[in-house]
# Entry
Amino acid sequence: MRYQPALVLNSRPIQLPFRPFLLLLCLFLLFIAAPDCHAARPQDDPDSPSGITLKVVTGEFRAVKGNLIIELSDSTGGAFAGGTHPVTGTTVTVRFDSLAPGPRAVRLFHDENSNDTLDTNFFGIPSEGYGFSNNPRSRFGEPSFKDRLFELRTDTTIHVTLTYW
# Structure
């Protein structure tokens, strides 16, 4: 059995009766979808990250050396962002981009000797500076997670005060 094409085309195009209808349908769909595509792009700065930005500013370091180790937690208490940042001046600003809104908590410490641990003395009192979001007071141990929690709704800057003993 030999294959035969179903339609043999001549040199002139085939004129179909529904061609203008298809053209109108395509144009209609294009104009309907175009505003949605345009609205999806950021209008002010195309290079800016999406989501909420949190800036954490801390200062009054006892010495301009070592690192600032910071941890950002969500409402469950689990750290999901953080890092180590060198202390090169009197203040350090850490920026967290593309965050979703919700409850957050920050804890940080000034690792003066860059050993990645919060050093303590013989009695367990920290010998390096530390701080928390909302700057809560604590008598013994770390303040409760509830005292450190804040609601992140829009771009926010918080100031964390370091405590040295």
Observations:
- The domain at 52-161 is CATH 2.60.40 (Immunoglobulin-like).
- The two ends are 95 Å apart (CA to CA).
